[in-house]
Amino acid sequence: MIHEELDRELEVRLRATLDEMIPKLVASAPSIDHPLASSTAQVDVEVWSVNRPKRSHFRPLVVAMAAAAAVTGFAIIINRPAQDGPASSDSVPVATGEPAWFSLLRPLVPDRFGFLAITNSTEDSATFVAIGAEDGKALEIALAPTDQYSDPAGTTDQVGSWTETPQGWVVNTPAGLRVEVSCDIGAKGRDFPGPPNYCDMASTGAFTKTEIRSIASAIANATVIEAARDPGLVTPAPQDQLLDLMAIALPNQQSISDTTWGPGDHVWDFAAIGQSRPDTSVRIIAGVYPRPTNRLGPVGGLYGDAAALWVVDPSGVAVRISTTDPRPDSYFAMQALATGIADRVAGQSSTAANTTATSSTNSLPATALTQYYAAVEGDSASSVAALFDVTTVELVEFNGWADGSSHPLVAGDTVRVPAGARMIDDAVGSLGEIVLTDGTTVSVGLTGDQSGICLLTPEAIGGCDGTPATLSPVYVVASGQDENQHQFVYGVVDDGLVVTLLTPTGEIPVTTSEASEGRRGFAILNIHGAGVTLIVRDGAANEISRTPVGA
Amino acid sequence: MRGYVDPLLHVSPGAPTTIDVDALYRTHRQRLVGLASAVALDPVVAEEIVQDAFEGLQRNASRVENPVGYLQRSVINLGVNRTRRRRVAARHPITPPANASTPEIDEAWSAVMRLPAKQRAVVVLRFWQDMTIQAIADTLGRPVGSVKSTLHRALRRLEEELK
Question: Cis link prior to A53 (omega < 30° from 0)?
């Protein structure tokens, strides 16, 4: 009863507060033109543009490309304006419907591959990619006339003649259509010298040869290729535009230690194709359908000793980074690289692609490019150096401070941080999979189990295998040290609890991700240095648990 | 804004195939910007969020049965996501607090701003938009129980802070 009265009192106060303050908050914004003031906007008319301060000039172009893809049913190469500066037109027609090939292919591919795109097309062939919306796993689907290939003889059924490949199946139909469906492991693609039954690796979950065969069978009976035909649009990417993207990739090279970047030899991919494994590659695709409302990813899939992760942007641009050496250090750099490229190509406000500070806050770009840190009260050269796990001397030299480590820092000062350095909470994971050194994949997110976290290999915890999980409000699944002597900790907490890391230089908030109902997951890897403690508090800041990390 | 009832939350399955985005924009923009501002705590970002939501609606118009519900959910999700991205910045809010008419309003608004974005979103939908728990759950695509528990936690937290 008392509580109800309190609630009512609080409710009245909240209503009065929100009624007064939200309009004031809105009114405090600079005036913005009404973009639709004089238009008659139906769903198939022009996209408008408000005077948005951070809108990049890349976006209109990508929208235009996406529109072209939508209209023609053909994925197009990534392009960019010849000159920097604002786009000449902010009004770009956008088609809202999906292309014909999408309508045909969508029902034939399992729902968990939520995004589809064409990656190549000729007069009589087409290649598609199907991207997993939740785990980043992908399928490649290649359609071509049978007379262009000479597949070894295999078994025959009513669909056609089947040949098993390391990554999937090929079926040649009596009508002369060759359908090849493969698990997409990136890197060297089909030349990858993996085990003979690569798609059945335990870590790929339900991604099996059986499933791939059923997809191939469904497609063999369809007329997808007809809808995808458009020979007039196969346009090689000008080399200088690939090199422009290379400018983003190159600084990441030092973070992805197994990689030597060079200009690509493929229209769609610019990649690090070395002479031997391991390799890391990048693929950029425009014209992905459907367009997600929010940026998806990076989400990754582990294929034994290789991994691929994807970012799918609302503009319809998808970026894939794949590697044959998915070590934690490489993986985080891959995430940063994928995000940076997606930002750049999709024209989002990009901290990763710019080399100037973009904010007055100390929020950091997740990138291996030069980073900028805005000092807060109490910061010093040594504390900032410790925050990024670099030496004070390195930081001083990098910033050119003549007064050395005694250089005074006041709140708001911009500090340059060497490429590759990572603030400790930059390693905080979010939705997606994170690869640990022993091959374990920690899946944090909407896993459907009760804990919100599953260890896919080598063991499972309660809930992941269908058994009910009985978990305390704070459940630290694991905490330890990886092969690089970096600490890690991951687990789940009840919704509403606040997770922080207590480090020698202060307390850092930890981002948690929605896991299952009422639970949130967290994964913090690659923590440099010891003496870090995980603290969980309730909403009233009462400490609930304290766990030394790595202990 | 008071007394708002979402007219299209329970739209019939035979949804219109053509959406008058202009009309939706004129009718709902101001309210959506307020919603986005309250979640993201940044009116400039809020404008971006609302535009992104309308862009999303245009892209997906053929599959959207409930445009207003879609816009609301987009605004909340985009607002929460932006807030997450600024998690470090959130310790140092970039939006200067607007002047409140009384110290009580000022204190309560400060407490609302300190709520996690999702809790703040539910509070705003409930007490600024006057939406029912069911309508909030429909809008956010979350179970009713989850919305109830989120609102409960938010109110307990506000209650503690405003003692």
Answer: no
